[in-house]
Specification:
mainly alpha, elongated, disordered N terminus
């Protein structure tokens, strides 16, 4: 049996994190019980669950030599002044602004 999780509420301050749209009733029961535990116990359970999952297949075809060359090229650009760096706070503000305005 699969049920929707509309009855479970996310706690405030966890924007962007939600529950799966559907879970088995057993999973919902386990989740409800786990969410009632202290933070340290929930963290331990989460770590064990994550460790139990298989590694996802790599979808990137990464050539280590190519990445090393790219990193070196970018570092040279920054050191020579050819590449202009921006303050992270300014970049973050611009990104948040764009996301907020659609």
């Amino acid at each position: 049996m699969v049920i929707a999780l509309g009855c479970l509420r996310r706690s405030e301050g966890r924007a962007g994190r939600g529950y799966a749209a559907e879970m088995t009733s057993d999973a919902v029961t386990v989740l409800r019980e786990a969410l009632a535990l202290p933070d340290s116990d929930r963290a331990d359970i989460a770590a064990e669950l994550l460790a139990s999952l298989p590694e996802p297949p790599s979808t990137l075809d990464v050539d280590t030599d190519e990445w090393a060359q790219e990193i070196e090229r970018r570092a040279r650009g920054v050191l020579s002044g050819e590449t202009v760096a921006e303050d992270w706070d300014a970049v973050e503000e611009r990104i948040v602004g764009k996301l907020s305005n659609g």
